[in-house]
Amino acid sequence: MSSADRREAVGTSVYWLHIWPRRYGFALVAVIAAGLVRYGLDVALGFTHPFILFYPTIMLIALLGGFGPGLFATLLSAAIAEFFFMEPLNSFAIRHPRDIVGLVLFGAMGLAISGVGDVFRRRTKRLEEFEKIVEGLEEMIVVVDRDYRYVIANHAFLSYRG
User: Fold this and answer.
1) Least packed by Cβ within 10 Å: which of 101, 137, 150, 162?
2) What are phi and psi of 60, to 5 degrees?
3) What pTM, to 2 d.p., does this model score?
4) How far is the C-alpha of 57 from the C-alpha of 55, rounded, in Å?
């Protein structure tokens, strides 16, 4: 099943994220939502880890939007965590040197996560472009893996095998 078939089967598409205002807007909304969920967990359960919910959010943003929005999400998440969840609350004042180390480590991890997410996003995009080229050919094309399972097969092969 090609990625185009999978996208049609699921019925969702992230093509609306192709232009940069939408990607950065998506990053802004996702980070704010993660901050609100984190605040809700703090109120309901006494959850004390300021950064934990921002990591999966950054990964999702980098996978869907790219490196720039992932880096933007990292910086925005650090600012939200520092202002709302670290002592002293509702202030950008840093009381302990360990808080600076925590922010720097969070920034480094966010940068790494954004880079890895962008690499996977670009790889998926190249694979989709390759599949489009293969689907357009009239010759039979089949790609199999080491266990002889079909990875890619175009319509010409599928209609022949039929």
Assistant:
1) 162
2) -60, -45
3) 0.69
4) 5
Pairing of strands 150-153, 142-144: antiparallel
CA-CA distance, 71 to 68, in Å (whole number)? 5
Beta bridge partners of 144: 150
- Report d(CA 130, CA 124) in Å as an integer: 10
**Could you tell me which residues come within 8 angstroms of residue 126 by beta carbon, excluding any fewer than 6 positions away?**
none
> Which pLDDT score is estimated for 9?
45
Got the DSSP string for 118-141? HHHHHHHHHHHHHHHHHHH-SS--
Inter-CA distances, 120 with 19, 67, 79, 113, 158, Å: 19, 11, 27, 11, 28
Which backbone phi and psi does 160 adopt, to 5 degrees? -70, -45
Can you list the alpha helix ranges (DSSP code H) found in 17-53? 20-45
